[in-house]
Amino acid sequence: MSETIKHRPLVFSGIQPTGKLHLGNYLGAMKNWVRLQDSMSCIYCVVDMHAITIWQNPAELAASTREVAAACLAVGIDPERSILFNQSQVAEHAELAWVFNCVARIGWLNRMTQFKDKAGKNRENASV
């Protein structure tokens, strides 16, 4: 007879460290992240590499990355119960992005709402 192993559901979510944190960040994501720690395995990420799809001042990005990580801890993300990490500290993320950039086709991207929104009217100049 085989034994069934039950795993807790897993949530993976991230937040960009751009702009200033506001009530919408708290009510829309962070408050829920804290609650989810009670019932799920949680991995939360400060997605600083996603933030550089548009130009960022490097010093400001570094400062806001620290601020967002600190805010996650301040609202109740518990590093004993969840994983909280900075995206750019995981080299494999950039390595996988390179692979995707090599195989992604512009036709595929043009069907993606997020790409179209970020690229705007200058789609010809947008990076993959």
Any key phrases for this structure?
single chain, alpha/beta, three-stranded parallel beta sheet, 3 strands, about 15% strand
Structural class: alpha/beta
Q: What is the average of the pLDDT values?
A: 88
Unreliable sequence segments: none
Described by the principal axes of the CA atoms, the overall outline is globular
- Portion in strands: 5-15%
Helix content: 40-55%
Q: How large is the radius of gyration?
A: 17 Å
Number of helices: 6
Provide an overview of this structure:
The chain has 128 residues and is α/β, with parallel strands linked by helices. 48% of the residues lie in helices and 13% in strands. Strands 1-2-3 form a 3-stranded parallel β-sheet, with helices on one face. The longest helix has 18 residues, at 58-75. The protein is globular. The model has no long low-confidence stretch (mean pLDDT 88).
Helices and strands, with pairings:
Layout lengths: L9 E6 L7 H14 L4 E6 L1 H4 L6 H18 L6 E5 L4 H13 L2 H5 L2 H7 L9
Parallel strand pairs: 1-2, 2-3
Quick recap of the structure?
The protein is an alpha/beta fold and 128 residues long.
